[in-house]
Amino acid sequence: MLSPSRRRTAQILVFLMFVASVALLLNAFAFKQRLEAIRSASSDNGGWVVAQLEVDQKGLMGVLDDAAFALQSGDATTLDARTLALINQEFDIFYSRVDIFSSTLRRMRLSDNTERQITRLQDTRDALTAQIDALTATDTEALMAFREAVNAAHPLVRDITVSALQDITLETARTREEEERLFVRFFVQSLILLGLMGLGTYLVIRLWRELETRTAETGRIAAMLSTAFNSTLNAVIVTDTRSRILYTNEMAQRLLGYHNDRLKHMTLDDVLVLDAAEAGNDGETGRLNLVGKGPVSSACRCADGRTVPVEVSLVRDQDVTGQTIVIGFIRDISRQVAAETDLRAALRTAQQAAQAKSMFLATMSHEMRTPLHGLMASLGLIEESRLSDANRALLKTARDCSARALMQVDDVLELTRLGESRETPEEFRPASIAADIVDELQPLARKSDNRIELVTEGPFDRYRVEGLPIAFARALYNLAGNAVKFTRAGRISIRLRLEGEAPDGLRLSVEVEDTGIGISLADQKRIFENFETADRSETSSSTGSGLGLPIAKLAVERQGGRLGLDSTPGVGSRFHFTIPLHPARRPADPAPQPSAPMPRARGSAKQVLVVDDNEVNLTLMAEMVRRMGHAPDIARHGQEAVEKAAERAYDVILMDFSMPVLDGPAAAQAIRAGQGASTEAVIIGVTALIEATAGMAGAAAMDDVLTKPVSREQLDEAIRLTRHAAAGGDGADGAARGPAPDAMPQTGAGTAETADAAAALEQLSGLVGQDTALRLTQATLDDAGRAMAALRSRAVTQAEQADIVHKAVGSAGLMGFADLSETLCEIETLLRAGRDPAGTDLPGTLAALLAEMRANYEPLLPAVAGDAQRPG
Amino acid sequence: MKRRHLLSLATAATLAAAVPHAGLAETPILTVNDLGRDTTTLFSDADLAALPQQSFATATIWTEEIHTFSGPSLATILEAAGAGPARLRVYAINDYNVEFPTDQIRDNAPILANRIDGESFPVRRKGPLWLIFPFDQEPEYQSEEIFALSVWQVKRIDILPD
Questions:
Q1: Domain annotation covers residue A572
Q2: Residue A275 pLDDT class (50, 70, 90 cuts)
């Protein structure tokens, strides 16, 4: 735990303390020894010993003086035993004192003088000893002599006392000095030791403080860890290797609903529910074999019996004692699971909504086809020869626009519901299609001060090519239209380049370049997404429909190409694609002249039976057939058609699908199955509902199916077919199988204001003849009148009302009675939706319109009014 | 040394001659006065020799060589005098006296030596009784206080009242 520097500090500290202790011990021991040495040297009190020498000598002298005085005064002539014993005792004391004196003094450092004197003293004492030992009680002379000798020794004793005392004083001073030195030394050593101890103490304090800091830090970390452990959003369960629970945090207790004490008697297996496969066969470790496998979805069994979905992650670790433990992190994912469920539900709802939207769009587009049919048919029937050049140009534009409108509707239908293309390869002229598109866009381009140029390169004249003209036109129109839309006062270049020499290796490169606002890199991918997934608000604000580019992309892809885009914001955009083309498989028709007079039928005129229950459709179709140079015949329902076909051999039968008495497919089957004259006739179905043909049993009996509105070209081509077209080498697989908006459709003059009803009627008369025009107008008014009567009648069901109104819608639309058609259409919609239009102002509007029209037209229709008999 | 020894023998003979009626061993040489109880006990050399003997060899600051001192311990004498350890005052022939603290009275030290190297010793050789500590055995005995208590030529011990 300690850093290396701290460890070194601690080591130094320990070493210092050890050294200091040893030094202190040694010092104290040395001090004691020296002190004792000094003290023991001075052992006994020298002064006392010295002083006693003289005292004892005086004592001896005292007893001798007493004895001498007694003898001299004559009290006694001899010494008594007691006195003698006393003298002896005093001498003995003196004697022993000299020994003591000598041995004591000689332990000190003596001056030479004292040394000599001691020797003399001992000599003197020995002499005295000899004298006293020879002393007898009677020998007074000897006693006196002894006394004299003792007295004579006194100066010596005196001298030796003085000099010895001096020596002792010196010795004492020396000792004191030595002691002082010893003390000083001890003091210095102690100071050093004190310093060492101080240093040690400093280190101890420093270490202590560090320790305190570390302890506090450790405590803080522990507290933080504990807080984190307890406040983490994950439940944490710590177990041993036998999955017995050791610790849990608050979250785990809250999640599982058990108290910590309870959990400590449980195992991980008690609270964790795992799949048998995941748990494995290892009974001892149980859930623990999930260790290290990352988050695993599982579930927890709670105290209240609930099972909560969780995510479990187990890791192996070791606790502070080195025991292996397993830490389990458990996350409650019930909210996540619930959110996922909600999301899925929301997605489903959104998908349903999108589907409903698609359905709506498809239905709406489909419904728009009916009025468009009328518009195009009417435009197609306008007699161009009577028009001025300016009006003819306007008519062309009107035809083009209506064709585009139909194409757009088809686009929506295609993108929303129909998805796949029904177009088959046919011969076409890319350059002229491009030229038409350029012409068409010119007015729009001029409005934005744009210049459009078309550049074609390559051998367009040498090859007749086959491709998907509709898809090609769609792609180019949308790209060019897009370019015009986003360019102001700029230039739009359309470049077509036919590449390759071999018949099979032809490629057409198309580039549409503009100098417009450009597209940012971020948007480049997104703009190709169709309206179902693109940001609605953005697409609607920038391109209007938001379908142009997706359609172009789809169209290019259908032709086997890939739409590319280079764009720099602020500089311009360049869309480009390359498509493979094949050489045409049959001789080309004379170059189609879109604005040329109506083509006449080639070959012999054919017998054509037109079958339709709708008077207007029947008339229009028959008229078109007649104008193509064929001989039309009519039938108003399937049964009539079967009967007529049995009698007469028709080349072609145009059969409506939905008809009273007998519907189209059934009639076609009957004609084919029967032994009539027209068994081998080409039967072409004509329907307003594309999808209605799919899967209808009778449709198989038909050779082809056309969708309303039927263009002149489609009709022409269909009629030219024979039952054995392929065998006849006619290469009939190019039959149009749907609307052909790129070709000039049959359209009629669509505007008929009440004010110039007469003019309108006159125009129509010009197209189909006056009788027919009058009859059609009358029939339309009758249809509308019948619809109104049906609406008012209580005896008719809503479904029947809808059917009757529908018929009137078709008639009014064909005749170009826009307001009437619209109003009827709304009523039909309501009826189909199961609602009663009586609650709205529609019946009132219808009555007013009808009254107005009758007022306008009836004066013009006196002659034919009675002929307007039609089958119910 | 040898000469001194001879001298001491001569002195002993003189003293013996001075007290003709009493045997040398029977002469009281130590008086123990129990001041508290007001009793006096006299000890002759034979009395002392009859007491349990202690013996040790030690050097002293007053003698040149190591000698073996023997005799009864002070504690034994006090016991023989009918007293326990107590504050004492010890008197010497040379009129030296010192108060002997109780705490220095141990079972085996000091002893009142009446023999040095197995021989009795006269006054000239600090006899006949020498209160002596085993200086060499205990360093604590090598102090001035103990030296002052090491009374030679002991003649009387007063047991002081409390």
A1: yes
A2: low
Residue A29's Cβ-side half-sphere holds a number of Cα atoms within 13 Å equal to 6
Cβ count near A68 (within 10 Å) = 17
The answer to whether residue A621 is domain-embedded is no
Same domain, A32 and A170: yes
A188 and A244 both lie in a single domain: no
- CB contact, 8 Å: A56 with chain B? yes
pLDDT tens-digit profile of A57-81? 999 999 988 888 888 887 667 778 8
Q: How many domains does chain B have?
A: 1
Q: In B, what residues contact A, Cβ < 8 A?
A: 7, 10-11, 14-15, 18, 61-64, 93-94, 96, 122-126, 139, 142-144, 147-148, 152-153
CB-based contact A482:A548 (threshold 8 Å): yes
Q: How many domains does chain A have?
A: 4
Sequence-distant (6+) residues with CB within 8 A of A93 are A56, A59, A60, B93, B94, B123, B153
| Residue A694 to residue A158: CA distance in whole angstroms | 166
Residue-range definition of the domain harbouring residue B78? 2-159
pLDDT above 50 (res A544): no
A44 touches chain B (CB under 8 A): yes
Write out chain A residues lying below 8 Å of B125, CB-based.
96, 99
Query: Which CATH number goes with the domain that contains B29?
Result: 3.90.420.10
Q: What percent of chain A has pLDDT over 70?
A: 80
Place of tokens 């008369």: A765
Task: Please report, for residues A50, A476, B39, B83, B156, the alpha-carbon distance to residue B161 in angstroms, rounded to integers and kept in the order given.
Answer: 34, 148, 12, 11, 16
Distance of CA A849 to the CA centre of its chain: 60
The residue out of A282, A301, A332 marking a domain boundary is A332
Q: What band does A601 get if pLDDT is binned at 50, 70 and 90?
A: very low
Span A486-496, mean pLDDT?
89
pLDDT of A740 above 70 = no
How close is the nearest chain A Cα to the Cα of B144, in Å? 6
What is this model's ipTM? 0.82
Q: What are the tokens at A776?
A: 């059609």
Q: Please work out, in degrees rounded to the nearest 5, the angle formed at the alpha carbon of residue A800 by the alpha carbons of A794 and A805.
A: 100
Residue type, A768: V
Residue A723 lies in a domain: no
Domain range for A28 is: 6-215
Of A81, A89, A100, nearest to B123 by CB-CB distance is A89
> Which residues of A fall within a CB distance of 8 Å from B148?
44-45
pLDDT of residue B99: 92
A172 pLDDT more than 90: no
pLDDT score of A754 more than 70: no
Helix, coil or strand: residue A587:
coil
pLDDT at residue A571 in the model: 87
Residue A32 touches chain B, beta carbons under 8 Å: no
